[in-house]
Amino acid sequence: MYVVQIASECAPVIKAGGLGDVVYGLSRELENRGNCVELILPMYDCMRYDHIWGLHEAYKDLGVPWYGGEIKCDVFCGWVHGRLCFFIQSKSQDQFFDRGYVYGGEDDPMRFAFFSKAAMEFLLKSNKRPDIIHCHDWQTGLIPVMLYEMYQYHGMERQRVCYTIHNFRHQGNCGNEILEATGLNRPDYYFHYDRLRDNFNPFALNLMKGGIVYANYINTVSPHHAWEARFTDVGYGLGHTLEIHQSKFSGILNGIDYKLWNPKLDELIPFEYDVDSLTDKAKNTKALRERLFLQDADKPVIAYIGRLDQQKGVHLVHHAIYYALQHNAQFVLLGSGTSAEVNNRFLHEKYFLNDNPDVHLEIGFNEELAHLIYSGANMIVVPSNFEPCGLTQLISLKYGTVPIVRGVGGLLSTVFDRDHDPDHAPEKRNGYVFYQMDNHALESAMERAIGLYYDYPKEFEQLVQQGMECDYSWKNAGAQYLNIYDSIRYQYS
Ligand code: ADP
To answer: Ligand 1 center to residue 437 CA distance, Å?
Structure first.
């Protein structure tokens, strides 16, 4: 099968969160299974160009219709760790992708509407006719809309779209200027409740809703989150739309790429190890302490890695730091805030804790340091408000770092409480789970984890090993996506 992935991120070349990991990992799995996979991405100025091999111009002066005129683009092509990627560089005065950031512009809907339009023009004009176009999140929600409403009449009538939603919180709300810019026009038609009109704001279009309505298949990234999105508030207003389109909606649990995330093969950590050589993990703990100027003490290192954002339960992250320090543990945080307010709060905390030899807060995004922390920490906290899948707990399990998670979304589907889990036998359990969104709930799980570490070290090691033996590779998800592709491939549009 010929699959083209269109996305705003692909690890490691451009990654703001889990989306980048998923786009890369799924593409590799699909290729390993004998499919032809290509990726289309924006050409950001802030990409890790050192991860692109053989970058060269593939299409010069691609004319992309925009507001009745056109914007010229150059399309570059290169390999990102073996994946063939096309990067769209616009020559617009708006400098859509030359701003030193991936997300965060006030005109983000316009930037990614342009990217979606350019990606479709590129497919059309370069005569690429994939069986499946797989697009992701609100940034590419317009792809199925444009395919169905425009491009199928220009020779793309056989292409089918799978649309994956990684996060319902960000939906791409915008005004009707997007319709004019992309040439979709007809505001009366698109502002209909059955099409793109936002479910709550009658004056806004919702790009994610467009993706849901028009794609041939939609999924989110864990079965439990698929249920939550339909029936609870974490669908952020799209529950009814999902209900209407339930026959083409499901949840598929993400995997992680065990070539990139594997303590036995990881070149970014000082000591490689596996389930049979855990003493080498302890050497990484020592290296982590040295790198972050923590004292070398016989205490467990508890970590947090992730965006510092309301979704991630930042107030509980904050509480976890102090709880760890009060209970004879060390704490390492690596995170970047999505708002200045949260960033400043943690910067303030960093300043306050600066002289404490048991804690280090690193505010920013640092892929290399993330690998060292996964390998050196003993436990990781993931106290999310909601979590569609979550990759940090999956990576932690592989690195023998015991996850302490809140029981929501994908966390609930992947972490099984050591002490209480009605569905999994003790030898299948791999971490700690708490449910309420308050300090006491978090403390109850942290207390049990720290207690086991100190009082029953053999049992703690056993829990570490059980986690490392879990298989959260792309094998399962790859097979499920291929089944979906197959089921929509010959579907009548
Ligand atoms: P998200 O909601 O951000 O997509 P996930 O758990 O699905 O959360 O994926 C997060 C990914 O981003 C993981 O690979 C994690 O290691 C990485 N990550 C998050 N924050 C940072 C950071 N500050 N530095 C390095 N890697 C990070």
So the answer is: 21
pLDDT tens by residue, 137-159: 999 999 999 999 999 999 999 99
Q: Which residues in 272-345 belong to E strands, given as ranges?
A: 301-308, 330-337
- Same domain, yes or no: 180 and 213: yes
Summarised one tens digit per residue, pLDDT across range 285-342 is: 999 999 999 999 999 999 999 999 999 999 999 999 999 999 999 999 999 987 889 9
Q: Which domain holds residue 440?
A: 278-470
Residue 484 lies in a domain: yes
pLDDT tens per residue across span 416-458:
999 999 999 999 999 999 999 999 999 999 999 999 999 999 9
Quick one: which atom of ligand 1 is closest to the CA of 311? 2
Q: How many whole angstroms separate alpha carbon 277 and alpha carbon 461? A: 11
In the structure encoding, which two tokens stand for residue 461, read together?
């090691």
Do 425 and 441 share a domain, yes or no? yes
To the nearest 10 degrees (0 to 180), the angle between helices 475-489 and 18-32 is 70
Do residue 203 and residue 287 come from a single domain? no
pLDDT of residue 490: 84
List all residues 6 or more positions away from 312 whose beta carbon is below 8 Å from its beta carbon.
306, 335, 382, 383, 384, 385
How far, in Å, is the centroid of ligand 1 from the Cα of 139?
18
For the record, the structure tokens of 208 come out as: 């994610």
Q: Assess whether 479 and 459 both reside in one domain.
A: no
**Is the domain of 179 the same as that of 299?**
no
Q: CATH number of the domain that 459 lies in?
A: 3.40.50.2000
Residues with CB under 6 A from ligand 1: 17-19, 21, 305-307, 334-336, 365-367, 370, 389-392, 395
Tokens of 349: 């905390």
| In-domain check, residue 261 | no
Tell me the whole-structure pTM to 2 decimals: 0.94
Cβ(463)–Cβ(402) below 8 Å: yes
Give Dmax over CA atoms of the chain in angstroms: 71
Helices (H) and strands (E) in the chain, counts: 17, 17
